Amino acid sequence: MNGLFRTKSLDALQADPTVRTGLRRTLGLWQLTAIGIGGIIGVGIFVLTGQAAATKAGPAVAISFVIAGIASAAAALCYAEFAGMIPVAGSAYTYGYAVLGELVAWIIGWDLLLEYTVVVAVVAIGLGGYVNALLDAFDLQVPAWMQGAPGTGEGRVVNLFAVLICLFVAWLLARGIKESARLNNVMVVIKLAVVVLIITVGAFYVNPDNLTPFAPFGISGIFAGAGLVFFAVYGYDTLTTAAEEAVNPQRDLPRAVLLSLLVSMTAYIGMSLVLTGMAPYQTLNVDAPVAKVFVDVGLPVMSQIISVAAIAGITSVLLAFALAGARIWFAMSRDGLLPIWFARVHPTHRTPYRPTWIIGVVTAVVAGFTPIAVVAELANIGTLVAFIIVCTSVLVLRYRRPDARRGFRAPALVAVAPLGVVSSVVLIAVLDPLTWVRFLIWMLLGLVVYFAYGRRHSRVAVEPGVPAAPEEA
């Protein structure tokens, strides 16, 4: 047990947030908020909303979003407090290391590697569906073999568009954070504008009869829907992984977390009500449900606009989560828990390009050959476990170190943190048991890696506090 619960020094982590780490500080409040919105609004609003309504909750999917949003908001407040305290790359991994110790940090870091990688794959699959819908809208046909993974349709072999977008995002992120942030800003503006357009135009085509019965699957269906759409209401945690690339992290990170979640939840609730009001919920279990309902009401031009916006919006999600995955990997490698080779930054672009490219290739393979529903629930359980650890850690630290400098203090933390834990546990409980099995297999593999390598190479054991910056490639 010796060393399993050694912690990083909180004072050392707070000592100098501008210390040179090899990464480049270029992100302000708007760029950070855009990363958060980019991480939240995407495949959930354009794909999973329809699928959750059709198979889980019916029109009551709006309530599913509220339930998932409460769990996410409780965790968001905890993330905001931590982000204002510890302006260091790694997000929940670093927070857990500072409070609960190395073994817990490893568990959450390994968990986040799975979560962020799987999210990229899920989002890429959803993007492939909208690319196909856009091509169909312009009467452009592509061979069936390249339209989706095996088992998702007759003659399908690979989701080729999903593969290509994963590789493009890896290339872009490896080129530099500033370039990636600029493109992300543009895509976020586009998708927010189109979401407002969808809600405004769609409201005129809502048929109240489609909203009855409102909860055809009952209370259990609403909670099952929340377990599925929870995938759509997180993503703000991705911006906290970029702490060492923020200009003023202790001020801007908490604000960006809360702003991004507020904007996104408003969009989700509005979209879900309009979507289920425009079409019977039973018809929404398709690859591109939002585009489909506008075609069905005789607005094919809107369908084309939506497909373009969905592609832009979903690409911004890919950027946010691929960036986050690479930064978690970078932080764990810099701490010695994974080989330092992965923490070498590019001498010109100042990015952790090695994990960036590995994540790009892995997600390309998963997205190309796996159905979306299987991957989405696996991503959800990883995030919920992260939320449990973050909510627990921030409450422990509030009592253990009440004197610590905090850029933001979560209100009513004694109620908010337990709410985040309990709601996350409830949402885990409604997931498919097979998802638990897959997750446990991944965690057992992680423990093998930790005890075989990470525990013996941990830099905190030799050099407590913040490890020195890695060398360049």
TrEMBL record:
Predominant place of localization: membrane
What keywords appear on the UniProt entry?
Membrane, Transmembrane, Transmembrane helix, Transport
Per the record, its GO cellular-component terms are: membrane
Q: Which Pfam families match?
A: AA_permease_2 (PF13520)
Transmembrane residue ranges: 29-48, 60-86, 92-109, 116-135, 155-174, 186-205, 217-236, 257-281, 301-324, 356-375, 381-399, 411-430, 436-453
Q: How does it sit in the membrane?
A: Multi-pass membrane protein
> MF terms per GO, please?
amino acid transmembrane transporter activity
Q: InterPro entries this protein is in?
A: AA/rel_permease1
Which top-level group of life is the source organism from? Bacteria
The cellular location(s) given in this protein's UniProt record come to: Membrane
Its name, as the record gives it, is: Amino acid permease
